[in-house]
Specification:
The complex is a heterodimer of chains A (108) and B (123). With 108 residues, chain A is mainly beta. Chain A has strands spanning 9-12, 18-23, 33-37, 44-47, 61-66, 69-74, 83-90, 97-99, 103-107. Chain A contains no helices and 9 strands. In chain A, the strands form 2 sheets. In chain A, strands 1, 3, 4, 7, 8 and 9 form a 6-stranded mixed beta sheet that branches. By secondary structure, chain B is mainly β. Chain B is 0% helix and 48% strand. In chain B, a hairpin with a 6-residue loop joins strand 4 (35-41) and strand 5. The chains are: A mainly beta (108), B mainly beta (123).
Chain lengths: 108, 123
């Protein structure tokens, strides 16, 4: 079955830039989406269609795509950004939803 | 304002069938392009997509769980129901329902989520 691969963890100091990658063979054909999940809470959409930001999401969150890899970038990381981040896309046919394994962002 | 809320049993026994209901407001499942999906998350683990039902009653299932899942909708009640058969302790998880907005992509994404409901499978 189709998989999206994320690094298990990323650590950054406050004010630095965090980059979280997500790799998958179908990503050149399918949009990617990113969710932030804090402990005990439901996921929150932070990026859709590779690089679009929903209303209410801070500008420091951005997304990009290059080939089979998409990247979530958080510029000027704040303590409140510490959370798990999940990428989501679809398989090559576009009919099955797939989530990545998640990346724990630690703000040092 | 879109809201969704999951309801159902908190404890089921192995081999039983789980039935979860998602009750939503702020949108209609008869609106073209809209859908409702189910996603689960075992304690301490990653999100896993289960099923998705569209405004036109088209349905999609996770390939690995397809044989155990059924998703239906009741547009008049603003509800979506997920059933999962033959429950096992490994199915212990928080189950979320979520709104899938209209868009170009077939599968799409989820922009509003319920709070989730923890289902424990144990004898």
């Amino acid at each position: 079955s189709y998989e999206l691969t994320q690094p298990p963890s990323v650590s950054v100091s406050p004010g630095q830039t965090a980059r979280i990658t997500c790799s998958g063979d179908a990503l050149p054909k399918q949009y990617a989406y990113w969710y932030q999940q804090k402990p005990g809470q439901a996921p929150v959409l932070v990026i859709y269609k590779d690089s679009e930001r929903p209303s209410g999401i801070p500008e420091r969150f951005s997304g990009s795509s290059s080939g089979t890899t998409v990247t979530l970038t958080i510029s000027g990381v704040q303590a409140e950004d510490e959370a798990d981040y999940y990428c989501q896309s679809a398989d090559s046919s576009g009919t099955s939803v797939v989530f990545g394994g998640g990346t724990k962002l630690t703000v040092l | 304002q879109i809201t969704l809320k999951e309801s159902g049993p908190t404890l089921v026994k192995p081999t039983q069938t789980l039935t979860l209901t998602c009750t939503f407001s702020g949108f209609s499942l008869s609106t073209s392009g809209v859908g409702v999906g189910w996603i689960r998350q075992p304690p301490g683990k990653a999100l896993e997509w289960l099923a998705l039902i569209y405004w036109n009653d088209d349905k999609r299932y996770s390939p690995s769980l397809k044989s155990r899942l059924t998703i239906t909708k009741d547009t008049s009640k603003n509800q979506v129901v997920l059933t999962m058969t033959n429950m096992d302790p490994v199915d212990t998880a928080t189950y979320y329902c979520a709104h899938r907005p209209a868009g170009i992509a077939v599968a799409g994404h989820f922009d509003y989520w319920g709070q989730g409901t923890l289902v424990t499978v144990s004898s």
